[in-house]
Specification:
Length: about 325
């Protein structure tokens, strides 16, 4: 779904049901769509192999660009690595004048779908897991929408191909989504213990907000497979994953008639996005060290917003049937 589309979305439907708007989220979707149009125009004459997609991740993939967002990009091919693959990462510069970014070399690279589908065991490194989960859970095509769709379908097939049980959440994929969420949390603490205090406060704020929403946006569609046949599950999940995570979450709140909890959750996330879009407040978070966090009003506001998001999602997952039963059965043991 185009993040900038004027058509009704689950997010707008939730807002209408609750009598509220989500101005920061809607503005970010419009900004993302406009920036994507500009980037595509800049690359209009660039050659592209037919098995290649230029995939946007992070804020771009979620439709949540703010003034301080990074440009997280992967070139993904359904074919093989080869010399002369087009486009090369260096050829994307006209679309991203600031340069594509990403820590530990996670982004700004070329990857094959076979590499992404290396699931489990020794070769499924932290980097492979991160790339695979972000492509599945929060990606959007800048170029090669058909290839991007094929990549998602191939990854889903890698997870679902061995599971043929009707009306059951797919455990293989569910366990990997949970593993990724736990990996994010563990890596956050590992960086802090290793003395990496740079942007600690911003990483902490995102862990409680955007990373939590990413996890919920993957968890909820998988739990919904409890009423889907094995044959239908790939298409159903593909349709879900082509939507922004906030739409998947909003749709669940609507489906289970938890509008008040949904408005609290998405409203808190909307306020967090507005905070990130304020250059001064974002810069203050980026400079803030852990020792001073407790006395900083911006950091404390982020903590409050994170608690509101957690409380709203907890109300949905543990106070609505059959979600409560499904979480107990599939999310714990």
């Amino acid at each position: 779904m185009d993040p900038g589309s004027a058509a009704p979305t689950p997010l707008s439907a939730l807002g209408a049901a609750g009598g509220v708007g989500f101005p920061a989220l809607q503005a970010a979707r419009a900004r993302t769509a406009q920036r994507c149009d500009v980037a595509r125009a800049a690359l209009a004459r660039m050659p592209r192999d037919l098995d290649v997609a230029v995939v946007l991740l992070g804020s771009w993939g979620r439709g949540e660009l703010t003034s301080g967002s990074d440009d997280d990009v992967l070139i993904v091919t359904t074919g093989a690595r080869r010399p002369g693959l087009q486009p090369a990462m260096s050829e994307l510069e006209p679309a991203f004048p600031g340069g594509a970014t990403g820590a530990q070399g996670t982004f700004d690279d070329v990857v094959t779908v076979e590499e992404l589908a290396t699931i489990g065991l020794q070769e499924d490194s932290n980097r492979v897991l991160t790339r695979r989960m972000l492509v599945l859970l929060e990606s959007a095509p800048l170029l090669g929408a058909d290839v991007h769709r094929q990549v998602l379908a191939r990854l889903l097939d890698a997870y679902l191909g061995g599971e043929r049980r009707d009306r059951r959440p797919p455990r293989f994929l569910l366990n990997d989504v949970i593993r990724y969420w736990r990996t994010i949390a563990v890596d956050f603490e590992a960086k802090a213990r290793a003395g990496d205090d740079g942007k600690w406060a911003l990483r902490h704020a995102k862990l409680r907000t955007s990373r939590t929403m990413l996890f919920a946006g993957g968890l909820l569609p998988l739990l919904e497979c409890h009423h889907v046949t094995a044959d239908d599950a790939p298409a159903v999940l593909l349709g879900e994953l082509l939507q922004p995570p906030t739409d998947r979450i909003a749709a669940s709140f609507l489906r289970y008639e938890a509008v008040d909890a949904g408005v609290r959750t998405l409203g808190a996330y909307d306020r967090f996005l507005a905070l990130l879009d304020d250059p001064e407040r974002r810069a203050a978070l980026e400079r803030l060290v852990r020792a001073r966090a407790r006395e900083d009003p911006t950091f404390q506001e982020c903590r409050r917003l994170g608690r509101e998001i957690q409380q709203g999602l907890t109300a949905l997952l543990f106070e609505r049937e059959p979600l409560r039963r499904l979480v107990r059965q599939y999310g714990v043991f």
